[in-house]
Amino acid sequence: MQISELEKAEVLEKAKSYIESEKTEAFKAEVENAIKNEDWEDLYDRFYTSLAFGTAGMRGVIGGGTNRINTFMVRKVTQGLANYLKDIKSSSTVIAYDSRNYSSEFAKSAALVLAENGVRTYLYDTLHPVPMLSFAVRYLKATAGIVVTASHNPSKYNGYKVYWSDGGQVTPPHDIEIAKLANAVKAEDIKDGCEEELRSKGILTSVPDDVDRAYYDMVKASLRRPEIIEKADIKVAYTPLHGTGNIPVRTMLKELGVDVEVVKEQEKPDGNFPTVKLPNPESAEAMTKVIDLAKSIKADIVLGTDPDADRLGIAIPKNSEKTEYQLLTGNQIATLLADYLLVTSYEQGGKNGKKPLVVKSLVTTDLVKKIAEKNGGECKDVLTGFKYIAEQMEKIDQNPNSDRYFLFGCEESYGFLTVNEVHDKDAVSSAVAAVEMMCYYASKGISLIQRLDAIYASYGYSTEVVFSRDYEGAEGKAKMAKIMADFRALKEGDTLVGRTISSVEDLLKENTAFPKADVIIIRFESGEKLVVRPSGTEPKIKYYIFLTEGADGRKALEDRLPQIVADFKNAL
After folding, report:
1. Residue 509, C-beta contacts closer than 8 angstroms, at least 6 positions apart
2. List of residues 6+ apart from 109 with CB closer than 8 A
């Protein structure tokens, strides 16, 4: 890459300014070494832009520079949040962090900035998952919350997510205004405080211990058939993938009398995630060790959570001997949980005559909608991002006369929510709900695979395929824009992937069922549906292929599926 003398001068000036403002020596040293070695490509990549506070926070590679996440960038965006909170009387925040490298340091840095700005701040003393932060914000009646996490991303990443008083990630107008203020903050604007002094004043305190207990009690109270779990003699194999789920998941299940075995090599928090390429239960590779454990102990169900414990992966036995296990897709988990919760709600008489509401992302299987409508419920599609599910929950909370109550939220990317007191995806409570579901069907002599087959027999067979293409760096952004523009140019009657298009829905245009979004929905005369959208957090475009058949056509579709997937991947 050719870097002009003018660009070198600009980058060097930014680098020197950054060094003066950064408090973490390791990050300073990275930049100082790049200057010393005249590594202009490295310096350019670190400073050609700044990580921006987006719609709910920021995420980036850990390291020195404005195009990295580090102590300075965390302090910078936190000052912007503090500026926004200053206009709110008696504002307060709760801060949590996961097991990633520098997460605890970033969390403390954010706490010191907020407290020094006069914002009452609660900081967790130990790592905690996303759902427990969401719960704590609501329980403590805080104005906002922060979680330092990069969710399921590779170990080189970290991030910063902001929540509002409802326990959901910030949405308009808060996200837009916070972003404006955060991105405008300069180094000299940042206020830092002394931890000892701020704690002595009481403006910075630890999150009270009773908040964890309240969360556990809430989850137990949400169970539909707790006696089923208590009577069952089952074994659970579990992996927290070096993250925050270990203590809460095991605490919950053990209090219910469930025998839980954890993968020892993945039990302790470790931001390097040494046993996996990607700490994501969506990845079959990440679930290898826990499935090996399941085979050795003959587990009845296999659970895996990502580093911030908001995503849940499940595997179930394929045979009665429990020698082979099937990893469920996010859509299959959503289908099973939706079916169990809706049928149970119907059988138990619902809730004061109100209609159960299921909320799903538009890229989650439509089978969930069919199940909801058959069992007296309603299903609403929202844009991708659990904050949009939380938005629907908050609408019900704010309307005491609503004829609906929230029952279940789901995303195909392994995000599920079975309780109303958390307003983000929750792998902890969902894991407990999944164990309850499994115990219920086991008490009737039915396996989860048999139940899934029965659902397909009732509603027709559905399957989905998700894949993505990565576009790193500045050039990648331009490529992504060109690709999306090409999709927008398609129209009814055009051919794509050897199939005739029946309709194209562009969510950036007016008069759609959704708010404006960079999403395109393409339907084909052959029955397939393709959804295309750039990721909101990573430099990639995601492709979702939806295929359905009647129950009798399942085998034929399964046989054709490899070729269908190959066709789409080759063409896209």
Report:
1. 516
2. 23, 71, 74, 75, 78
| 516 vs 552, higher pLDDT | 516
Compute the distance between CA of residue 98 and CA of residue 68 in angstroms, rounded to an integer: 18
Strand partners, 58: 160
Q: Are 545 and 565 in contact (CB under 8 A)?
A: yes
Dihedrals phi, psi of 242, to nearest 5 degrees: 65, 20
Reported as a single tens digit per residue, the pLDDT across 168-225 is 999 889 999 999 999 999 999 999 999 999 999 999 999 999 999 999 999 999 999 9
Cβ-contact 372, 426 below 8 angstroms: no
pLDDT over 70, % of the chain = 99
DSSP 186-210: -GGG-----HHHHHHHTSEEEPPTH
3-state secondary structure 24-88: CHHHHHHHHHHHHCCCHHHHHHHHCCCCCCCCCEEEEEECCCCCCECHHHHHHHHHHHHHHHCCC
Strand order in the sheet with 144-148: 57-61, 157-164, 144-148, 92-97, 120-123, 204-206
Give pTM, 2 decimals. 0.93
| Helix 427-443 × helix 246-255 angle, to 10° | 30
Contact of 222 with 429, CB cutoff 8 Å: yes
Residues assigned a catalytic role = 151
d(CA 298, CA 294): 5
CA distance 537 to 336: 28
The dihedral over CA atoms of 327, 329, 333, 339, expressed in degrees to the nearest 10, equals: -120
3-state helix, strand, coil in the chain (%, to 5): 45, 20, 35
539 against 148, higher pLDDT: 148
| Alpha carbon 346 to chain centroid, angstroms | 29
Torsion of CA 353, 359, 365, 366, to 10 degrees: 50
Alpha helices by DSSP H, 100-204: 103-116, 130-139, 174-184, 195-201
3-state secondary structure 388-399: HHHHHHHHHHCC
